[in-house]
Structure formats: C-alpha cells, structure tokens
Amino acid sequence: MRQDHLVAAGQLSRADVEGLLDRAAEFDAALAEGGGAALPARYPETVLALCFYEPSTRTKMSFETAMKRLGGRVVDMGSVDASSVSKGESLADTVRVIEGYADGLVLRHPREGAAKMAAEFVDVPVVNAGDGAGQHPSQTLLDLYTIREAAGLDDLTIGIVGDLKYGRTVHSLATALTEFDARMHFVSPESLQLPRSVRFDLHESGAQVREHTDLDEVLPELDVLYVTRIQRERFPDEDEYQKVAGEFKIDSDTLDAARDDLTVMHPLPRVDEIAPEIDDTDHAHYFEQAHNGVPVRMALLDQLLSNHE
Amino acid sequence: MSDHELRISKIRDGTVLDHLPGGSALHVLAMLGIDGSEGTGVSVAMNVPSGRLGGKDVVKIEERELSQAEVDVLSLIAPRATVNIVREYDVTEKKRVERPESVRGVLACPNSSCITNAGEPVETRFDVLDDGVRCGYCEEIIREGIADHLDVA
Ligand SMILES: [Zn+2]
Predict the structure, then answer these.
(1) What is the reported pTM?
(2) Domain containing B12: what range?
(3) In what residue span(s) does the Aspartate carbamoyltransferase regulatory subunit C-terminal domain sit (chain B) (predicted)?
(4) Which of A140, A181, A198, A248 is paired with B31 by a 20 to 30 Å CA distance?
(5) Which residues lie below 8 Å from residue B124, measured CB to CB, with a gap of 6+?
C-alpha cells in the first residue's frame, strides 16, 4: 500500500489487504506472546491525534491501544461539545491545526466524505474511522482478518444482513470483497437495501452479488454471516421497525438451517440482533473480531506512518 | 434562412450555442454563470422546431468566447450541443462538446450529509460517468435531472 491515507476501502488492492493482514498476524502473535512487552517500540516519538466528532468508544480505544502498542502516544480531541466545533470552526481548519501537533490523524465524522476532504488539507496520514453512512475501512480490515482466520478469503460465500443502506461497515466490506473470490448475498428490508453508489461499484467490478429480503433463502449456503444493527431511528414508526428487526434476529433456531461451520460476525455494539445463546457456540466470532481491531490497526498505522517517513 | 435565425439576429462577436435540448437554455446560462448582469447581449430562443431533436434551444452570447473547459461542462446537460465562435459575423471556430472526466464547482451534491454541504472551504467535484455523475467526496451518484443540481452563483 503506497497511499498516505486510508479513506475508503476501494483504495485497497488484494495485495494491500494481504500485506496488512499478514503484518497484523505478526502483531497478533507478538501480543499473544507477551502483550506490549514483546514488541519493540517502533514509534517512540510519534503522536497520533484522535478526532472523533461522533462518540465511538471502541473504535477510539482500539486506535489508541494500537498506537500505544507501537510505542507511540495519542492526543484526543475530546468530546465534540467541548471543542471548537460547537463554535463553528470548519473541519478543514481543525485538521490543519491538529496537523501541527500530531504525526497522524484518525477521524470519525458524521458527514460522508469528511475524511477524504480532511486528507486534502493535511500532509500527515489520515485514517477514516467512519464518515456518516459512507465508509469505515479500518473496520473492514479487521473484518477481513477475522474472515480470513475463520473461513479464508477465497471461494467465500458471505451473507451480509441488516441495514445495508446506512451501514458504513457494510459499504466498506462489500467494496473490499470485490478484490476477492467472494459470492455476496445482501439481505435486508426493502427500505434498507444497498445505496446506489455501492451497487455501482459492485456492478463495475463484476462481483457476484444477489439481494434478498429473506435470510432463509441463503443461510444454508453461507460460510460467513455478517450481521449489522438495524437502527430504530431509520423507521418512521415503531411497528414497522419491530416487524423487520424481528425478522433478522439471529438465534439458535435461526441457525438450525445453517452449516455447522458458519462464522457469525457483527461489528458491535449489538442490541438484540444476535441472541446471547449464540455467544458460546462455535459460530460466534464477533468478540474475536473486536479483539482483532488492535493488531489490525497496528498494522495499518505502521504502514501509513512508515510510508510517510 | 432557418427558423432560429429569423428569431435571433446574427451577432458580431461571441458564441452561438445550438442544438441545446429544448427548455435547457436557462440552465445552460446558469451553468456558464451568465445572468445578464455582464451588460452584453444574450439572446435565447427556446423550443425552436428542429428535425434532429424535436425542439431545441439556441443561445447567442455576445462579446464572450467560451473556453473549451466551459464547453465541456455543457456536455452534462447538452451532450449534442454545437458551439460556434463568431468573430466579425463569421463563424471562425467550431468547438466540440466532449464529456470531461470530472467537473469542479459546477454541481451541488444532493446528499445533504455530504461534507461539501457543510460550509467547508471546499469546491465540489464530480466524476463524470457514462450515464451520470458521481460526487468525489461522498460518492453519491446523480443520473437524472443533473441540471437541477447546478450550483452556480
Ligand atoms: Zn457528495
């Protein structure tokens, strides 16, 4: 990966992904062996700025942990209410100021395209940690890492279920999977199907894609079931929400029809999309997936910071 | 003498845009940032009968020669336009309308939560697709009614 920034999954070639995942596996092994002590401090003077305009404790903490495991430090913009954002400063100005403090910048922002714009204003590496309903490419890397460990990335049949319209993790994952030999099944209520831009990319890449409103149609074929949350606020009334939310809830009855080696994933946090009874089964890979955030983000930061040196 | 020439007299110097889609002339002027305040003559004929298009618009802009870049932007709403540059009553140059790879600062993104609609100091950029345009920031695709998204002062 030669880019200075990671703003969208479409930037990543298959070779980029494989390189990053291999590196992540090395970090993962080192962490498993001796925690941070097993790692040389690669970036002792490096400061990473965490700019989260939307709350996301986990993503933020995993970037923070990753930077610290690499021997670096973080500065945190803090919550948006307390910052100059509420005083009306533009994002373009804010990132240019922060560029003066830090060697890299992780941005979570409620508007689509925010990270892409930020990357045009600064020279330090920018990582998109979620832009509105747009993209979340570092999540995608850890999703791919988890998929590779559990099922492999070749000859893969994956079902992606839930809010496909606003789900940025879905958009990034679908885009990234076009680089691999994956059959993608998208399952959602009609009102939450994939947005036009993602469909366009999938079509352009010649990906094998099918769309469904009923999970039962495809569940038995799947190697991986990637579940996302359907947000209540996306629906005009509670009844409509209850109708669809119940339909995509995964419990042990649902999985009766699934293969024994089905891998169930979820970017977390979940509400009730996956029943707790699944947690102790071999299907459950979502906590592992969350755990993978640190080594994968270590690999990503390592790559971007060393590109930038 | 053809129909539209009867309606609009010849100009001495400037640009004649012909074969614009019927009803698009005002959008074309908006796209070019021409609103009459320039003080030079602008003639518009709308829905002139035309064998090729059914009804076409014609615009004559005096004392201004459109650049190739301006002409290319036209292609988004008038792909079959013909552009004649006139000097001393004669057509001295015919420009071809070609679809540009991208356009900057011409269209507003219809996605209300796009970063370009947040008061940031950034110019919109749209990549031109075979059958539409795509926001260079949020990746939203516009296929129909591109003229409705013109963002020109
Ligand atoms: Zn946009």
Answers:
(1) 0.91
(2) 3-96
(3) 103-144
(4) A198
(5) B104, B105, B106, B107, B108, B109, B116, B135, B136, B137, B151
